[in-house]
Write a structure and sequence with these properties.
Strand content: 5-15%
Strand order of the largest sheet: 3-2-1-4-5-6
Amino acid sequence: MPKRYYTSSKRLHIYDQGGRNSLSGIQATLFGGTSALGSTLGGSLTRIGTQCIYPYRATGSIWDVRLKELKTTADLGYKAFIRLNDFTNEQEVAYSLRDSNVAISCIGSHVFYKKEKDFEDANIYAPIAIAKAVKNNPNIKRFIYVSAAGADPNSQSKRLRTKWIGEQEVKEICPDVTIIRPTMIVNLLHQNPTISAKWGMQMKMFNRMNW
């Protein structure tokens, strides 16, 4: 538990054994809900009665295939989609966090980008805007930032270098942030174009992996 909550000892949720129509007490804003981790995480949260808000980029559409998969994860009133013009704009991000007590950032799941600026926007500037909005929102009790395993300032990968910079900036703004460093995440809905992901899909196809 973060130090600032030692005296209050507030629980994050009220009841986690209910179903889709129960009220767990968690109101989460999930950035990057269309990623491989975000779609699964959103479904797990709404399964216990969590109200989830999914901000999405202006380049996307509410009828996108990935957003359509999120619609079936929760009943009416337990999910909402907010379209943001710029994820690096603190005011727009703060608007999506105004009614939440949990913020989860799964942005930056892409392995390849055409420009290095795209890596910086997804892994540095967007997390900074989210962290600043979380810091200025007194209702947020938990902030979870999903980084990547192998994040290092001296890495040859642009993705891992920018992930490390984003971690340092987020920790400086919100010292109580929970940072998770997962390895490569793949599922059947979001087929990653990397060699390891293609190998995993082939192993799944021939029933060589039990997942």
